[in-house]
Amino acid sequence: MQPDLRQVATILQELQDSICDALETEDGEAQFVEDRVESENGGISAPRVMSGGTHIERSGVNFTFSLGDELPKAATARRPELAGCGFQAASLSLIVHPRNPYVPTTHANFRCFVAMREGKPAVWWMGGGYDLTPYYGFDEDAVHWHRTARQVCDGFSKELYPSMKDQCDDYFYLEHRKEPRGIGGVFFDDFRLKDWSTSVDFLQQLGQSFLAAYMPIVQRRKNISFGQRERDFQLYRRGRYVEFNLLYDRGTKYGIQSGRRIESVMCSMPPLVAWSYEPDLPAGEAERTLYERFLVPRDWAGMEI
Amino acid sequence: MQPDLRQVATILQELQDSICDALETEDGEAQFVEDRVESENGGISAPRVMSGGTHIERSGVNFTFSLGDELPKAATARRPELAGCGFQAASLSLIVHPRNPYVPTTHANFRCFVAMREGKPAVWWMGGGYDLTPYYGFDEDAVHWHRTARQVCDGFSKELYPSMKDQCDDYFYLEHRKEPRGIGGVFFDDFRLKDWSTSVDFLQQLGQSFLAAYMPIVQRRKNISFGQRERDFQLYRRGRYVEFNLLYDRGTKYGIQSGRRIESVMCSMPPLVAWSYEPDLPAGEAERTLYERFLVPRDWAGMEI
C-alpha cells in the first residue's frame, strides 16, 4: 500500500482534539488557544497552548503538517540517498506542566515522514513516544504508565516495548547531571513495522493510549495538598527539564534551526522555574526517594505491586 | 619577560575579594559562601555564591586556577601546534542577578592561559570582558557602563574599545530570537598586547574597572519601587539569559564538557525564571522601550546625554 500521509495527519489531528478536550475537562477552568498558521504551499502549523489553569499550569499540544520540494538537511544527514526528494511530514507534539507537584510532567510526540522519489516507491518512517517526569514518585503510577505503553506495543510484537523503553531511557538522560530526566516510557525513531497500514495502526494506538496512561495519574494526584516545600522542589526540578530541552533535545534544536515560530518551539518550557545553588537540595526523605528510587532505570512494567 | 601565571592568579584573587566585598556591602545582608576545592596537582576551584540577599538575589564569583600536562581539546582545536603542551590557566568569572528589576544583570570574566613548550618560549593569551543586561533601560546607565570600559581600553590603544565592543555585540546575541542579550560591553579572546606585562596591566585595569562600571548603576536603581508587573517582566526576560547560557555560551558548554562540578557551572542560572507563551508580552511602553531602544546595537559610549 502506498503511504498516504493525509491519513496520518487526520489521525494526529483527531488525537490533538481528544487530548486537548481531556486536558480541558480535567482542568475544569483553562482552555486551549490555537494559533493556526497555514503556509502557501499547504503546510499547517496549529499550536495549541493552555496556561494558568487550576490543575494545568501550562500545556502545549502542537500539530504540524509540513511539505516541501526538498528534504531538510536534518532529515538527509543519515539518508544521503534522499537528498533532493520531495517530502511530507506530520507531527503531534505535546507537553503538560501540572501545577500540583504530585502530578508528573509529561511529554509525547507522534510523527511520520514520507519522502517521495521519482519513479520509485516513497520512503517513510515514524517516530515518537511518551515519557513521564515525576517530582514525587509513586510506584503504582510508574507501573501503570509503563504497562499502558507495553500493552500497545505487545499487540504488535513482544520485542517492541523492551527496545523502545531502552531507547527512551537512553534519550532522556542528562549527561551533565548523570541523571535520567524522569521514569521514561517509550521512544522510537526511523520506525517501520511490516507495512504502512500496520505502522499507522501502531502510531494511532500508541497515540490513543497516551490519555489512558496519563489521565488516571493526574486524577489520582491532582488534589493532594501541598505546600511551599513541594512547590520549591517542583520549580527546582523543572530546571532539569529546561536544561534537557536546551542542551540536548533534538526537537527543540530542530525547531530552532529550522526557523519555526520561536514561541511555538519554546512553549515546551515550564512557566516558572528555579535554580538553586545548593548541590544536594533538598534533603527530605520524599525528595531523596525521587533520586534514589525513581531516577534510576527500572523495569517498571514488570514490577509486582 | 616570561609569563608568570601566579602573577595573574594573584590579581584575579584580589579582584574576587574586592568584588565580593563590594557586593556584600551593597546588599547589606547576604554573604558569599566559598566552596573551595584544591586538586592534587595544585589546581584551585574557589566558587563563591551569595543567595537571597535584600538587593542581590543571586551572585556567583568564581576563581579557578587549573594546570595540567596536556592542553584540553577545547583549547587546541584552533591551535593544533600546541597539542600535548603543559598548561596553566587562571580565570575569574562572575554573574549578578539583582532582585530589583530596575537593576541590570551583569556578567564578567577575566582569564589567562599559558601553554608551555619544551625548549621554546611559552605561548599565552587572555580573554574575558563584561556585559550588561537591563530589564528596564536607562540611557545614563548604558553610557556610563560603556564609557567606563572605553576609558580603560583607550589607555592602551584607541583601537581596543571599538573592536571589543563589536565582539561583545556579536557574541551575546540570541540567534533564535534575533535579539541581543543586553546592551553589551566589551569582549575579547586570543588577546595579547605588545608584551606580557602590558597585557597583565590591561587585564588588571579592566578587572578593577568592573566595580566602577557596575556599582553606581546598582546604587542608582536598587531602591526604585516596583510591583508584580516589573517582577514578571524580569522573570520573563531572565528566560533569555537561560536560553543564551544553555544554547550558546562557550563558558557553560566548556564547564559542562570538562566535567567541572556542575553546581559551579550552573550557578550562573537565575534563581527564578518564567517562560510566557504570549509572543509579544508585555505590551507596556517601558517594556517596549527595552526592545526598541536598548536591545539594539548602539554607540552608547559616544552618545551625548
Description:
Chain A has 305 residues and is an alpha+beta fold. Chain A has one domain: Coproporphyrinogen III oxidase, aerobic (oxygen-dependent coproporphyrinogen oxidase), CATH 3.40.1500. Helix content of chain A is 40%, strand content 25%. Chain A has 9 helices and 11 strands. In chain A, the strands form 2 sheets. In chain A, strands 1, 2, 3, 4, 5, 6, 7 and 10 form an 8-stranded antiparallel beta sheet that branches. In chain A, helix 1 packs parallel to helix 5 (196-221), helix 3 (139-154) crosses helix 4 (160-171) and helix 3 (139-154) packs antiparallel against helix 5 (196-221). The longest helix of chain A is centred in the last third of the chain and has 26 residues, at 196-221. Chain A is globular. In chain A, 45% of the residues are buried. The mean pLDDT of chain A is 93. The A-B interface holds A 49, 51, 58, 60, 176-177, 235, 239, 242-243, 246-247, 256, 261-263, 265-267, 269-279 and B 49, 51, 58, 60, 176-177, 235, 239, 242-243, 246-247, 256, 261-263, 265-267, 269-279.
